[in-house]
Amino acid sequence: MTKQKFDAVVVGAGMSGNAAAYTMASRGLKVLQLERGEYPGSKNVQGAILYANMLETIIPDFRDDAPLERHLIEQRFWLMDDTSHTGVHYRSDDFNEPTPNRYTIIRAQFDRWFSRRVREAGATVLCETTATELVLDGRGKVIGVRTDRSGDIIHAEVVVLAEGVNGLLGTRAGFRKVPKPEAVALAVKEMHFLPEEIIAERFGLTGDQGCVIEAAGTISRGMVGLGFLYTNKESVSLGIGCLVSDFAATMERPYTLLDSFKDHPSIRPLLAGSEIKEYAAHLIPEGGYRAIPQLFGNGWVVVGDAGQLNNAVHREGSNLAMTSGRIAGEAISIIKSQGRSMAPENLSLYKAMLDKSFVVKDLKKYKDMPALLHMNSRNYFMTYPQLLSKAAQNFVRVDGTPKTEKEKATTAAFVKARSRWGLFSDAVRFALAWR
Amino acid sequence: MHIVVCIKQVPDSAQIRVHPVTNTIMRQGVPTIINPYDLFALEEALKVRDLHGGEVTVLAMGPPMAEEALRKALTYGANRAVLLTDRHFAGSDTLATSFALSQAIAQIGNSFGVPDIVFTGKQTIDGDTAQVGPGIAKRLNLVQLTYVAKITSIDLSARSITVERLSEGGTQVLKSQLPCLITMLEGKTVIRRGSLDDALRAARSAIVKWSAAEAGIGDITKCGLRGSPTVVKRVFAPTPREKKAVQIDTTEKRVHDIAEEVVACIFTHQPTLQHELTSAGSV
Hints:
Chain A is an alpha/beta fold.
């Protein structure tokens, strides 16, 4: 057996792992990336929306050959009760720009492309190879990894743990705890095939334009959760996710939530005639700023979902993953170029750089949001959507009732459901958490 | 000992879908795999090499993306991979394919040593013809051992090989001379998992790519569409059969009655058959 030694081993070939591997390899580091799936992307699940800026920082010319589905020109936010939705739609021709801001992607295809770029940058990528254990020396420094293939330890100066939300290496080594049930959501999604022209017609799109629906309300049956529908070229992805702790408490089954969501009178017509192509499930880190674990140590760093770097409020994850991967890669390259060791006092550079980026700043902004929604989920996800629907219906339905009476009825319904003090404190608490 | 294994990258037939509107096969996005029978051939070749020493060269013909399949074969532990890729090969039927592969095997012989055994899978899962293996054997004038389930032994000094071959009547034990061509059946063998060293070597090593000229093919007219007399008339998705199988209750009935009922049932559904059989006087 030959002894294998690398500057860096990256565990995982998702967004954060690819960003880290690409960044280091293109700066001349000897990089090995390990991926348990048959190919990069085969095990990766996301809605999925790609945020262009963060990828552009890493690969400026990505639009030339990356498999992108549609660029998004319309965003719909829906508050749903059982029979209706009250929505805000934002659609702008400004999004038909030469370098669009957001795209829908299919991760199985996109990640393959990203991985090809990683290989072209000079990294060695091993698929169908699971990193099973971090190898530590007597002083607790990570010196390499063991895999599920026969052979020696793979030695590395630093290991980048891009192992995803449920990553076992870091938790086994005691670097961080298994995420708490209230800090992860379980999302289920389906991909439905629909001909391109039908998607264009149903959503009012031309060419590569795309539309996104994000929905909350009674669809999550009082749990903290969100539903979504994204348009791809020849398919729509839709799904719903709720906190694992809520699933455990209510014993609701994720797939029944998805079935009801698909059957909702506002969603059903959008899917009519479609054929289901695939289904998937995934855990999403939702713990926010307070759930971020230790991100670096002696010979290791954590990036992406494994580090709980996900902005649940804005439903952003892959961009935080990419950015944390890139920053870790840059920090490691800097330390390496200065000839310093991958000791914690040097790797703290990664955390310092990350703190200055939007990643940590955004998560800090919403640090109280997860706790608030969790405490008050029934009100935010059941009561208010129902009240809003009633109010909207009251407003548009013409039945001879004088308008002043209608408005009084609407106000009375809100007060009855939450009391004046309750309404006031919900508003204040929400505003404070958002601030 | 030098062994050549011919592999083909095929669409994973378990995941092929039919377009719900146009009713055509959707090739886009269908994952590709190494033809499963070829994997058994590769595993057998690697076992022979591990036992007797030597090298295993994998050979594939296909578009540049077939490199993936070859790299995978290297991950399993093959020593060398050759991809035969040229637009002249596009549209090859089994005649043209076996021609091109046999020329490439001859060239592999010139470059890396004459093979003692050439392996192919029994057939591919996308074409299902089982013609390419025998076609190569004929052109290279090799003894052919088809439908081999197991290699029992190899005697290198006597240059002989003993194999178990499945036939309709049972298992044949055949002894033959080397060199030979073997088409492998799916066996009970577990396909190995390549070691870390093999995986790293596979990820890093370059795949030898040959054009028709580089493979020593002079006569291009025998390649690709021009060299292929087979014509595909139509591709279609069969409509599901509407009629369900008839079930006959056999409890508490005498064998004779069951037979009567079966025959009656067949004739009800195949009236012409009844006519043909009775007019021939066989019933």
